[in-house]
Specification:
single chain; five-stranded mixed β-sheet; 12 helices; 30% helix; binds pyridoxal-5'-phosphate
């Protein structure tokens, strides 16, 4: 998938930035293998092309949410282990042996259907188990794991190949949950005699934990956001990494193109609801981008874009496919000029961390919105 139809709005993905970020993560993760998280169409960067780039760099595994994503990766020729976090249902069980995908069991409900599907396919199906040690989301309590392992061991067509858990706040150095999660999973693995067992690949660390939680790397690590060049804690987190000499490179750039330049007098109501009325004679650039293109409606009267390397503030409401920006203080803008939505132009740069603040959200959402709602191209 390339996201959307080609048009004035373009997302450009730097393959070299993806490779660079992977190298930084590898250095930090030590002996652990990399499970690249490419769900959400690789956080807007395009799952298939991102996976091709990272596979060529030798990542050990890929993580996706749904079984259809795993099938698409196999059809694109990806040979690494593919772990499907949420896609195991009675009607998808057969797809796991058929496509060589590894499901994650959240409890015992799917043992029967998966065992039957694997037996019918004549294979021993690997699977993983999600333990809830403090995330308070999916997975089963540590005390329930031994019984589930027994049930799995009793099925000749199934083989457990790893336990996983997830951190609720690993990017926050003060989060009390972090050490509890790490300690509980570690105690569980020790207690079961599985901590160092051969044939198992346990994993726990997301990007925040890779950077900040000593001892969380286990056999695999699961970076998402930092592969794409960002820290889970936004600009503050990236600054902390820079102090340690780690520079991540945002892989996504997003641009639009001025479709019209016009002057309006003071007192002109702009766009739907006239939520901005000009206070002075104003020069406007019309951009053919809006919330349909992932340029959030929350940017109304709030966001900025770069034109001629300068900041042009959004005036009025962002509509579905049109946004007005104020270029009264920027000389020389003409129709056809490139407007930078995300990325640098001249000496200035708009990063997903800043757009996330305007949206009252996180860099993850900015990347998903812009990346998945515009045509993508790749370079490098
Ligand atoms: C998405 C996801 C990750 C990646 O998290 P980042 O914060 O993007 O590094 C890791 N583990 C699980 C279970 C996930 O769903």
């Amino acid at each position: 998938m390339t996201g959307k139809w080609a048009g004035a709005n373009q997302v450009l993905i730097s393959r070299e930035a993806l490779r660079h970020n992977l190298r930084q993560l590898r250095r930090q993760a030590g002996r652990a293998g990399i499970m690249a998280m490419v769900k959400a169409d690789a956080y807007g960067h395009g799952m298939l092309e991102t996976a091709r780039v990272l596979a060529a760099e030798g990542v050990e595994a890929f993580g996706v949410a749904e079984v259809g994503e795993g099938i698409a990766l196999r059809r694109a020729g990806i040979r690494q282990e593919i772990i499907v976090l949420l896609g195991l249902w009675p009607e998808t069980a057969a797809a796991f042996p058929a496509h060589g995908l590894t499901p994650v069991l959240l409890d015992g409900a799917m043992v029967g259907p998966l065992a039957a599907a694997a037996a019918a396919a004549g294979i021993v199906q690997p699977l993983q188990i999600k333990v809830d040690v403090g995330m308070g989301r999916c997975g089963l309590a540590p005390a329930q794991v031994p019984l589930l392992l027994e049930r799995i061991a009793a099925e000749p067509s199934l083989r457990c190949c790893g336990l996983m858990a997830h951190f609720p706040a690993s990017e926050d150095p003060d989060a009390a949950s972090t050490e509890a999660v790490r300690g509980e999973l570690s105690a569980l693995l020790q207690g079961l005699g599985l901590a160092e067992a051969v044939g198992y690949r346990h994993h726990l660390a997301n990007s925040g934990a890779i950077w900040h939680v000593v001892g969380s790397s286990l056999d695999l690590v699961r970076p998402g956001i930092s592969l794409y060049g960002y820290h889970p804690d936004g600009a503050r987190g990236s600054a902390r990494l820079r102090e340690r000499g780690v520079e991540l490179r945002p892989a996504m750039r997003c641009t639009s193109r001025v479709i019209q330049v016009k002057q309006v007098p003071a007192g002109t109501g702009l766009g739907y609801g006239h939520s901005h009325v000009t206070r002075r004679p104003t020069t406007l650039a019309v951009l053919p981008i809006g919330y349909d293109n992932g340029f959030s409606r929350t940017f109304s009267n709030r966001g900025q874009v770069l034109l001629q390397g300068r900041r042009a503030p959004v005036l009025g409401r962002v509509s579905m496919n049109i946004t007005l920006v104020d270029i009264s203080d920027i000389a020389g803008v003409t129709a056809g000029d490139e407007a930078v939505i995300l990325g640098s132009q001249g000496d200035d740069c708009l990063g997903a961390d800043e757009l996330a603040v305007w949206m009252n959200s996180i860099n993850y959402e900015v990347l998903c919105l812009l990346g998945n709602r515009n045509a993508r191209r790749y370079q490098g």
